[in-house]
Design a protein that fits this description.
- By secondary structure, the chain is mainly beta.
- The chain has one domain: TolB, C-terminal domain (Neuraminidase), CATH 2.120.10.30.
- Helices cover 4% and strands 39% of the residues.
- The protein has a 5-stranded antiparallel beta sheet. The protein has a 5-stranded antiparallel beta sheet with strand order 3-26-25-24-23, with no helix packed on it. A 5-stranded mixed beta sheet has the order 4-22-21-20-19, with no helix packed on it.
- The radius of gyration is 21 Å and the shape is globular.
């Protein structure tokens, strides 16, 4: 097995031709303004108008995952990076643990109906204090906990219906749902390690429609603070701890959603209505990134937390939208864990790249290889505008 490939940055991957707005948030207001109606200026006047990843990224690490009869990965549903271990959930049924050389350390694959078994993995998270792995079985609303070696420890069943969750270092859980359901929590609520309710740090009231945003909402900013983007009608990014929540960023847009849509008072499908939503949220020390779409046009937004600059690009194709050509796919992290961006490249995509780039990323890759994990380590800014970091 090859060691991971480390590049300061492949030069071809450096620049996204996206335009920049100098509109800055008011001091202390933490506002991000998105001019979705007019889009970005079509003329790039200077290098300052280009979003250049080399201004933000220090190192990109490409990690080819071990491929063997005991380690075959099809579709990757989620990735976590905790304590220098990669946790990869594949095909909604198996979870693999790798070191940073891509060597398989352990595997959890216990699909079934018995004790310590699950029907389908919807989400998972890892306790940073002991590496215990918690899996949510969506078929029975159950959390199952395993050791990092794959041994079953305990389980409990939930009365509520979460859409994502995370584990805090003390073993408590933060669960989240953006959906309105009568007699159910909406927002973020905390439980103990046994699933017993403690409090609700974030309460969402108002909009009565189901959210259609990203599959994975909660982002670990550090051991104590989690970031989450609000659902339709809540254009905010929240920072949440075990006991408190705050609006870290307000997203102001040129668009509005009619009240009858927010209240769910319409006939037919939501997609037939006049609305937009925000998705694809990630955050690290320097950048907040997300997408805004009305299902006809998609705008990618990158907000520089130090300067207040807003970089946007627009795609008028079908949603979902991956900006740029194939070489740029790996520069749009699917999530961030503790400030590190995570993504992956499937072998079939990598094999379409020019040979010189394949050789830099994973020279031994074949069409039958497991995916390559991409880790993005960001530069530490001299000014940290948010106490979450």
């Amino acid at each position: 097995m090859r060691n991971p490939v480390c590049h300061p940055l492949l030069s071809v991957l450096l620049i996204l031709s996206v335009s920049c707005s100098d509109k800055q948030h008011e001091p202390g207001a933490n506002q991000i303004y998105v001019d979705f109606e007019n889009g970005s200026p079509s003329v790039v006047n200077s290098e300052d108008d280009l979003f250049n990843y080399s201004n933000y990224l220090d190192t990109v690490l490409y990690i080819p995952l071990e491929t063997s009869d005991n380690c075959l990965i099809g579709y990757i549903n989620d990735i976590h990076l905790v304590n220098d271990r990669l946790f990869v959930e594949a095909d909604f049924k198996s979870l693999f643990v790798f070191d940073l050389n891509g060597k398989l350390l352990s595997k959890i694959s216990k699909v079934g109906r018995g004790h310590g078994e699950y029907g389908r993995i919807a989400w998972f998270d890892v306790n940073p204090s002991n590496n215990e792995i918690s899996i949510y079985d969506v078929t029975v609303r159950r959390i199952l906990v395993y050791s990092v070696e794959g041994d079953f420890i305990r389980q409990f069943t939930l009365e509520q219906v979460p859409r994502d969750f995370c584990v805090l270092p003390n073993g408590n859980y933060l669960f989240y749902t953006p959906d309105y359901m009568k007699n159910h929590y909406r927002g973020v609520w905390q439980t103990g390690p046994d699933g017993n309710y403690i409090n609700q740090p974030l309460v969402l009231d108002g909009s009565a429609i189901q959210d259609i945003g990203q599959n994975h909402y909660l982002m670990h900013l550090n051991n104590d603070v989690v970031g989450v983007m609000g659902p339709i009608g809540f254009d905010n990014i929240y920072h949440i701890s075990a006991d408190t929540s705050e609006i870290a960023y307000q997203i102001k847009t040129s668009e509005t959603i009619p009240d009858y849509v927010l209240k769910g008072e319409f006939e037919g499908d939501l997609f037939e209505q006049d609305f937009y939503f925000l998705t694809g949220y990630t955050e690290n020390e320097s950048l907040v990134t997300f997408m805004m779409t009305d299902m006809k046009k998609t705008m990618n937004v990158k907000y520089d937390k130090k300067t207040g600059k807003i970089y946007t690009d627009v795609n008028k194709g079908n949603y979902p939208f991956i900006p740029g050509d194939k070489l740029l796919i790996s520069l749009e992290p699917r999530r961030t864990d503790y400030g590190v961006g995570l993504d992956y490249l499937d072998a079939n995509i990598l094999m379409t790249l020019p040979e010189e780039y394949r050789n830099k990323i994973a020279p031994d890759c074949t069409m039958d290889s497991n995916p390559i994990i991409c880790l993005y380590y960001y530069k530490k800014p001299k000014y940290l505008p948010n106490p979450a970091f």
